[in-house]
Design brief:
Blueprint: H1 2-19, E1 31-41, E2 47-57, H2 68-72, E3 75-76, E4 92-97, E5 100-105, E6 111-116
Antiparallel strand pairs: 1-2, 3-4, 4-5, 5-6
Keywords: Signal
Pfam families: RcnB
InterPro entries: RcnB
Length: 117
């Protein structure tokens, strides 16, 4: 009986880390389905309608950490009032990537907030 109890305790120590293991993908990109409709009118009055379903991947999310390479290619926004953004707290700054404004932590590069224009 004592051996059985020891074997059960030992196996619980071995299987517990596997139960709490994280998945291989630490950050998954959210996907959004969109519909695009294209209408073409030809010379003879014929109409052609093409409907496409497009999956758009969102690139930024709160809590995502920007790599040093990504941080080198973005520009800081000093005139945040011009874009109707609130003042960044101490240790954070607004940056602009394409038409997205990201509020990032200066020390860690973690996205705190985002705004799209």
């Amino acid at each position: 009986m004592k051996r059985l109890l020891i074997a059960l305790v030992a196996s619980s120590f071995l299987t517990a880390p596997m139960a709490f293991a994280q998945s291989a993908k630490p950050f998954e990109v959210a996907q959004v389905n969109e519909r695009h409709v294209d209408r073409n009118v030809y010379k003879h009055g014929n109409k052609k309608t093409v409907e496409k379903r497009v999956i758009v991947k969102k690139r930024w999310a709160r809590g995502h950490r920007l790599s040093p390479a990504e941080r080198r290619h973005i520009s800081a926004v000093n005139d945040y009032r011009r874009y109707k953004l609130r003042a960044p707290p101490r240790g954070q700054q607004w940056v602009r990537v394409d038409n997205d404004f990201l509020l990032i932590s200066v020390a860690t590069g973690v996205i705190v907030n985002l705004a799209t224009r």
